[in-house]
Amino acid sequence: MSTPNTPETRPVRPISDLVGTSTGESWLARYSNSLMGVFGTPQRVLVRGQGCYVWDADGKQYLDLLGGIAVNALGHAHPFVTSVISSQLATLGHVSNFFTSPTQVALAEKLLELANAPAGSKVFFANSGTEANEAAFKLARMNTRNAGDGGARRTKIVALEGAFHGRTMGALALTAKKAYREPFAPLPAGVVHVPFGDLDALRAEVDETTQALFLEPIQGEAGVVPLPEGYLAEARRITRDVGALLIVDEVQTGVGRTGEWFAIGDSGVVPDAMSLAKGLGGGFPIGALITFGPENSALLSAGQHGTTFGGNPVATAAALATLHVIESQGVLANVRAVGDHVRSALAKLPEVAEVRGRGLLIGFDLALPGGVPGDANLAAAVVEAGLAAGFIVNAPGPRTIRLAPPLILTPDQADTFLAALPELVSRAAAALTQQLSHQEDS
Ligand SMILES: *Cc1c(COP(=O)(O)O)cnc(C)c1O
Q1: How open is the CA angle 205-207-213, to the nearest 5 degrees?
Q2: What is the pLDDT of residues 292-321, one digit of tens each?
Q3: Do domains 15-72+330-441 and 81-328 have the same CATH topology?
């Protein structure tokens, strides 16, 4: 018998000892009685994962083509990541930012190296993408460049229509979607959204009063929409000309997701700051903001920002382990090869109208099957049909499917989905037309 003061000696205790086991239906009933309703009803209750597969409470297996929304970079329960996290936790789990730890320093150095950051670049660690962007928002506010020379006061931040940068008040001010923003007005002031991909609009808006421009290289939440060719380089020129910061949100696109370490990797563009999160910890929560060069890295000084958990030993160990595996196991090459394979196979399907994205961040629009009305949520019905058939995919829009699988997805695993997709679309179409005829009957 263990007492509160004598540690349990069994090395690994199954979590079911603590929470018990039950059916999916029963967990979901308890969920709705105990969890805040911000996420709607969860699609399934997941109990276990291995590689690219997860299992639900009723024992059903799924191929995970969403990877916890571009998070599970190395799939589930990766043995190396798991062992590094366990050993760090068993050695030193948390210290607060009154102290530092070897893993924190090593991860900062590794990120600066991977980002090709010039001398004097620095890293701030947070716990999520939203928090990384929140830090970037405060960084932007500190851009008072030229003010001392009698220059214009900087009060404006520019972001793009379609942008998603997070849900806290600062990050939400950067996010474009009205439905997310409007209930929470007033948001921090000064953020202007310009039409996506329109360089003339950008030139007209970014001026000497601009603190920063925020960009996603590929808008993930908007349905995997890449910036037009050349836009990023021109955005760099425009912001540099007026002394505004260029802040790149690579929360979804970074850490190998596109087949490069960062989506801006081959553009030659050096931003002023870059936010990371999602894939960075291989499933363990961590976010980071990289500031490029000494001037940007000095904008926030001691006491101006902080976090209790950010950059803790376990999270930074998890990220180091994830980066190590990506680097040493040819994962980026796999992302490029499997991503190309999936995109070209999708492009050949009559069920698919358009394919977008890079590496293993893939969005595709569904062609409208006969009999399905244009305003029906076809993509949501495909997600449902996918779950029934053992595939996890996501619908960021009513006609759009997003795939962001583990970066270790194999071509064979991808092929099981590609082979099933036509049938999933026809089942989804059948379900929608049936719903419609029921509505007409009643
Ligand atoms: C997911 C996401 C965020 C928010 O990250 P969280 O970890 O959910 O806070 C911010 N920006 C982009 C581009 C994202 O995809």
Answers
A1: 70
A2: 999 999 999 999 999 999 999 999 999 999
A3: no
Angle at 380 between CA 379 and CA 382, to 5 degrees: 60
pLDDT tens-place string over residues 143-163:
988 776 777 789 999 999 999
Catalytic residue ranges: 164, 249, 278
From residue 312, alpha-carbon distances to 71, 73, 90, 94, 101 in Å are: 19, 20, 14, 6, 8
Which ligand 1 atom minimizes the distance to the CA of 163? 13
Q: List the end-to-end C-alpha distance of the chain, in Å, as a whole number.
A: 62
Where in the chain are the domains? 15-72+330-441, 81-328
Per-residue confidence (pLDDT) for residue 1, from 0 to 100: 44
Ligand 1 atom closest to Cα of 131?
9
What's the CATH fold of domain 15-72+330-441? Aspartate Aminotransferase, domain 1 (3.90.1150)
Instruction: List phi, psi (to 5°) of 43.
Output: -70, -35
Name the band, by pLDDT with cuts 50, 70 and 90, for residue 14: confident
What separation in Å is there between the alpha carbon of 66 and the centre of ligand 1? 14
Kindly give the distance from the C-alpha atom of residue 349 to the centroid of ligand 1, in angstroms, as a whole number: 31
Is the CB of 210 within 6 Å of ligand 1?
A: no
Binned at pLDDT 50, 70 and 90, residue 4 comes out as low
**CATH architecture for residues 81-328:** 3-Layer(aba) Sandwich (3.40)
Q: Is 259 in the pocket of ligand 1 (CB under 6 A)?
A: no
Q: Does the predicted TM-score (pTM) go above 0.90?
A: yes
pLDDT tier at 2, thresholds 50, 70, 90: very low
φ/ψ (deg, to 5) at 103: -65, -35
| Residue 125 alpha carbon to ligand 1 centre in Å | 15
